């Protein structure tokens, strides 16, 4: 169950958090919903729940790039005190999703196309390593997990549900990086993905992008399953570079000027 408040009646966005236990006519807690809520609260601190909800809203575009996040407003919206919101803001800054400006407040992170381009290039290099490593060490159970995620993406694509596809896509790539077994890489990768959230959705929203992306995911997993390390690495590298090119088309920026500008900066 999800928590809402009177903002729904006013047409304002409502944030999802676990509700208090739902009770029957006799006043007893409903076991199913209550048990689920208790499990969520036992396994996550309140700041973590707030952080995850804000992450969801940012990635979904409900909180757009550049938006100012007011601590008191967010606390009221979520039905929590300001302390957990403050802690969530700090965690979100560390993950690259927001920036804290002294005497100004907290803002959803914005980046220009040039910075996004550089991150895509770095991700491509990291993903090539991830593909190679996954092909070397993935177990049959790992392959089943990856194929299940691909099936989720296929179902979302069939329904033209970009939000569901985007979330499954994020989970798929995160799972691949987990398979590499390198904690530092996983932390670095997740920060890069967070910073790119706006541009990744823009790239996927282009006509024909989702079917192409889905086909590439199938190809990547088959190469990993076959233990073809070099081919899997190359497939992932090209997959990321393809996303970068779609980002260029969506923003009207070609790769050549961005690369030249980056080269000028290093002189």
Report the uncertain regions.
1-43, 257-267
CATH architecture of the largest domain: Up-down Bundle
What is the CATH topology of the largest domain?
Four Helix Bundle (Hemerythrin (Met), subunit A)
Total strands: the figure is 3
Which outline best applies?
globular
Order of H and E elements? HHEHHEEHHHHHHHH
Cα gyration radius (Å): 21 Å
Can you list the strand order of the major beta sheet? 1-3-2
Give the CATH H-level superfamily of the largest domain. Answer: GntR ligand-binding domain-like
Secondary-structure-based class equals: mainly alpha
Helical coverage, percent range: 55-70%
CATH top level of the largest domain is Mainly Alpha
* Binned strand content: under 5%
Profile the largest sheet.
3 strands, antiparallel
**Mean pLDDT across all amino acids:** 78
Head-to-tail CA distance between termini: 56 Å
What's the number of domains? 2
Helix run count: 12
In words, what does this structure look like?
By secondary structure, this protein is mainly α. It folds into two domains: 103 residues, Orthogonal Bundle (Arc Repressor Mutant, subunit A); 153 residues, Up-down Bundle (Four Helix Bundle (Hemerythrin (Met), subunit A)), CATH 1.20.120. Helix content is 69%, strand content 4%. The protein contains twelve helices and three strands, in the order ααβααββαααααααα. A three-stranded antiparallel beta sheet has the order 1-3-2. Helix 5 runs antiparallel to helix 11 and helix 7 runs antiparallel to helix 8. The longest helix has 25 residues. It starts with 30 loop residues before the first helix and ends with a helix.
